[in-house]
Amino acid sequence: MARSFDFLVMGGGVAGLSFALEAAKHGTVGVLTKRSRSEGNTVYAQGGIAAVLSADDTFERHVEDTIVAGAGLNRREIVEITVREGPDRLKALVAMGAEFNRRDNGEFDLTREGGHSKRRIVHAGDVTGKEVERAMLAACDESKNIAFFTDATAIDLIRDRGPSIGGGRVQGVYVLRDSGAIETFVGKVTVLATGGAGKVYLYTSNPDVATGDGVAMAYRAGARIANMEFYQFHPTCLFHPDAKSFLISEALRGEGGKLRLRSTGERFMQRYHPLAELAPRDVVARAIDAEMKRTGDECVLLDMTHLGKAYLVERFPTIYATCREFTVDMAVQPIPVVPAAHYMCGGVVSDEHGRTSLPGLYAIGEVACTGLHGANRLASNSLLEGLVFGHRAVAGAVAEVQTGVKLPTDLPEWDPGSAVPSDEMVVISQNWEEIRRLMWNYVGIVRTGKRLDRARRRLDMLREEIRDYYWRYQVTRDVIELRNIADVAHVIVECASRRKESRGLHYTLDYPEIDDHNWLHETVIARAV
Ligand SMILES: Cc1cc2nc3c(=O)[nH]c(=O)nc-3n(C[C@H](O)[C@H](O)[C@H](O)COP(=O)(O)OP(=O)(O)OC[C@H]3O[C@@H](n4cnc5c(N)ncnc54)[C@H](O)[C@@H]3O)c2cc1C
After folding, report:
1. What is the pLDDT of residues 357-389, one digit of tens each?
2. Does residue 368's CB lie within 6 angstroms of at least one atom of ligand 1?
């Protein structure tokens, strides 16, 4: 028996919860999350939320800062919407109970981050995402119309293929529950809010759930996907086998941290940029990547030892304590760091109301490509995007539901065919490791046509093997995620291969210059289904 809702939402981060809270005023909402309710990128967000809130700031400046960061590829109307609606969404969040740092006079304590020409970042200490998630989940608990399903992994979108009944409308998803059962979830409207895909790369700041499931499902169903070549890498993540995704804030370099080679201890950033360690994020990430490739070292070092223990403990309490947990005392030894996949600027193409190219399917938050970020994301614009489009998408969805969309009653149950339990789990671990490593080495921070071709050839083979495994054995979360990172990797390679220039986050040695004449447009792909 299918579970039916007016609004079916995949994802419990800032985007999914924004949507759920607003949609619950109009109908029933089912929210699926892959693990716990709060696990996702949102809860790990440290810096804050960008919004124009001070008298000496203007919407125009925030718009311009966003477009400069995005290397001109942004959709200006989307940037305008996001920036202008940001302050109201922020205030709604506060009204919901979210608490942010304030000054003695009660005003927000606005901070500034790279690329912002004004102080406009609202934050809750260095755990902003946790506070956003806490406040939103508490608000959801007040609503009788919202039902959560945890440990519920959406596998694939269900699309009506009969042109006479709905013309290929997305009607819901098949979902793997923690019991191993596969259930059918149905929605008058289906919303992807599944976040990013950092796990496609060997090193990432993202948690384990970030396997790009939304992009992969939408791609398989034939939706338009854009700009996937623009993956943002954070320059410094803790390098330690057990510290999967701990971010070492850029503030450490701001406070005098020096990057050194692991093998010789030599500084290198001055060879790449006059500002050395204070160069823009992408320059630092590229320099570290180049030095790691040149020396064969697995990481570089971030040296803070000259600043003294008292200062470090006071200024960076969380980072200090976490490094200590991994036996690194940053007061006496440099921190081993690597760049890490951090934010997916591309995604499922969606419009100003979150509508995708597939009828009945919406995409919001990091999984979506609204055009806000263009070729590179301005810091702290992503929580903002989730708030604004999570809210805006409801208007579109409600209007659609009011046209009389009926819940389908005759969807086929999941057909396991002749699948049997797997006796070859090694296929999963082998392919998982191989994809993430090849993406890191060939489709990472610096690309070339040759590297992309190598990646494509290997991925074609791996995807074939994974497809075979997927149909032969009973579905598990591991195989769902493996299939998804393989499909997302494929989409990234295809987008990156098409762009014959270097812009924003896409840097290729074959075409090191920006080419506004030929390439000032998005890279859109769609699979024929
Ligand atoms: C370490 C870190 C620091 C950051 N700092 C900042 C910052 O300071 N400011 C800022 O603006 N941005 C920051 N970001 C980026 C920002 O956190 C994310 O872009 C944003 O939170 C994404 O929200 P979302 O709702 O789209 O997705 P997420 O918060 O990632 O939520 C995704 C949800 O989808 C669910 N899901 C995924 N796949 C499935 C599936 N198959 N079935 C069912 N459910 C599924 C997950 O369980 C989860 O609930 C940071 C990111 C990281 C990782």
Report:
1. 999 999 999 999 999 999 999 989 999 999 999
2. no
